[in-house]
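Researcher: Final request for today, and then I'll write up notes for the group meeting. The sequence and the SMILES for 2-acetamido-2-deoxy-beta-D-glucopyranose follow.
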Amino acid sequence: MGSSFLALSIFTIFLCIYHKAIGWAPSDPTDGFVSLPLNSSNFHIHKPWNLPENQRYRFIDGIHWFWVFSTNKPLSCNSSTKPRSEIRILLGYDYSLGVWQFEGYGYVPNGTSGVCIIQLFGASGQSTTLAMVVYNGTLSYYLSSVLVPHIYDQWFRLNVIHDVGAGKVTVFINGVLKLEANDHGGTSHYFKCGVYSQRTPSYYMESRWKGIKVLKKK
Ligand SMILES: *[C@@H]1O[C@H](CO)[C@@H](O)[C@H](O)[C@H]1NC(C)=O
Ligand SMILES: *[C@@H]1O[C@H](CO)[C@@H](O)[C@H](O)[C@H]1NC(C)=O
Ligand SMILES: *[C@@H]1O[C@H](CO)[C@@H](O)[C@H](O)[C@H]1NC(C)=O
Ligand SMILES: *[C@@H]1O[C@H](CO)[C@@H](O)[C@H](O)[C@H]1NC(C)=O
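Model: Predicted protein-2-acetamido-2-deoxy-beta-D-glucopyranose complex:
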């Protein structure tokens, strides 16, 4: 018993040294990035123009709650855009150069569908560099690649990296690389999260976010 424990310990130590030697280490998407100071002054809530903010957004116990109905008004009265409740996150940190990262923990309750829950705004010839949508419980990059087939009713960690110089976006979910894609050009960018109705929305749409960080490569 004692000797097999000793053997196991030696084996474990050997494995650690081996992994260090070949450069293997459990890496994190935020390695090499610094978290920028962020407070409520960096958050601007986008909501139906005719409603007070607290009818579509709450911040309780560190959790941002966003909800909207498909019949709600758009952001501004003459706008033809669909209803939304979102944080425009990077107020004060709009960027056009460098390598930037959004980190947040998201949650989408069962039933919410036909909705965009995160956008990296700003592109050339279209509005977004990246958009992630939920349709029928599946989280996708636009409607083109599935990121998580069953996303409802669980917190997930999201890291989105935008390397402006390289023209690339990278998405990690729960620390696992899920997507590498080209960006869509553009000269000024910022992140948004919440709920923004798309085609064939559910009547009620909700997402929750916590631990929101904006990071920049050192
Ligand atoms: C938020 O941060 C900015 C600087 O980053 C600071 O000037 C401002 O006072 C802070 N506001 C609050 C409400 O803490
Ligand atoms: C909306 O459109 C109407 C009619 O064109 C115009 O009179 C009004 O000033 C516009 N409102 C805003 C906030 O742009
Ligand atoms: C979502 O709710 C529907 C209707 O109540 C139920 O049939 C379905 O199994 C639920 N899905 C998940 C992932 O919980
Ligand atoms: C979601 O489900 C509805 C109803 O079953 C279906 O009409 C629609 O095509 C689905 N949407 C996607 C993007 O899968």
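Model: The CA atoms of residues 30 and 183 lie 20 Å apart. The chain has two domains: 1-26, 32-217.
Researcher: Thanks, that's everything.
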